[in-house]
Amino acid sequence: MPHQNNLCGRHYYLTLTPYRMVILAFFVAHYYLSLFTQTFYLHRYAAHKMFTMNKFWERFFFLFTYICQGSSFLSPRAYALLHRMHHAYSDTELDPHSPLFSNNAFDMMWKTKNIYNDVLNNKYELAERFEGDYPVWQAVENFGDKWYSRLGWGTVYVLFYISFATAWWQYLLLPIHFLMGPIHGAIVNWGGHKYGYQNFDNHDHSKNTLAMDFLAFGELFQNNHHKLPMRVNFGVKWWEFDPTYVAIWTLDKARIIKIKRKNVQPKQRTKKLAQAA
């Protein structure tokens, strides 16, 4: 009988192990897919237009961003305006999310949320000068911001955990699912302006937080980005690896997007034509 009990216990453990992996896989997938859409679509495309894409792919990635961010979906327009303000007023009182003017990361997140809502509803006059040149799909944007959309996605996450969670502590991951987009923003804007090193003097507190960039897919090279805001590869030194740039380079090679490259200067163009001849 003891031997049988041991076998039952071992079978129970082996049965639960895949369920533990399902929760882990779901959390990691949601975290990094949401992160990718934020850095690739909201940041580098909507805010900076570092590359171009046709209308089909613009709509595809718009919808993909909504699905991946789910309950924490961020409007491409509002994100673009806030981020442009962040560059223009970096680490001043007008910066919508500088850690220099917040007591802690949560305080900064709450301040950013209030400004985001005002920008979204056209109630933030300071953002008006940054309007234009961002993707618009009003139906998805309006629906994604509704309470029932956010509640619906939250319910999906909870039901998934009820189906596959094997321990009480796994439910502690749910708040991260609910607030995934703002959490990514807080990691980048708090860490990237407080911790790390500087390659450039940008007259602000932007830093490269290399040790934490596995949580940000290149976004924590803030010092590099503030110096070179249109550079699609956020890494500058040979050892600064930007994972999102690899994806962008791949999509460019696949002709899904087109990276904006610097125009050749007249003298360089003449020289190249002469060499070609």
If you had to describe this structure to a student in words, what would you say it looks like?
The chain has 277 residues and is an all-alpha fold. The chain has one domain. Helix content is 58%, strand content 1%. The chain has a two-stranded antiparallel sheet with strand order 1-2. Helix 3 packs across helix 4 and helix 4 (105-120) packs across helix 8 (180-191). The chain is globular and about 50 Å long.
Helices and strands in order, then pairings?
Layout: H1 2-47, E1 51-52, H2 55-69, H3 76-88, H4 105-120, H5 138-145, H6 147-164, H7 174-178, H8 180-191, H9 222-227, H10 243-253, E2 258-259, H11 266-276
Structural class: mainly alpha
Number of domains: 1
Work out the strand percent.
Answer: under 5%
Q: How do the SSEs run, as a string of H and E? A: HEHHHHHHHHHEH
Spatial ordering of strands, largest sheet: 1-2
Mean of residue pLDDT?
90
- Rg measurement, Å: 22 Å
The portion of residues assigned to helices is: 55-70%
Low-confidence stretches: 1-16, 263-277
Specify the biggest β-sheet.
2 strands, antiparallel
| Helical stretch tally | 11
Q: Specify the overall morphology.
A: globular
Quick one: how many beta strands? 2
Ends apart, CA distance between termini: 89 Å
Considering the chains and any ligands shown, give keywords for the structure.
58% helix; two-stranded antiparallel ribbon; disordered N terminus
Quick recap of the structure?
The chain has helices spanning 2-47, 55-69, 76-88, 105-120, 138-145, 147-164, 174-178, 180-191, 222-227, 243-253, 266-276; strands spanning 51-52, 258-259.
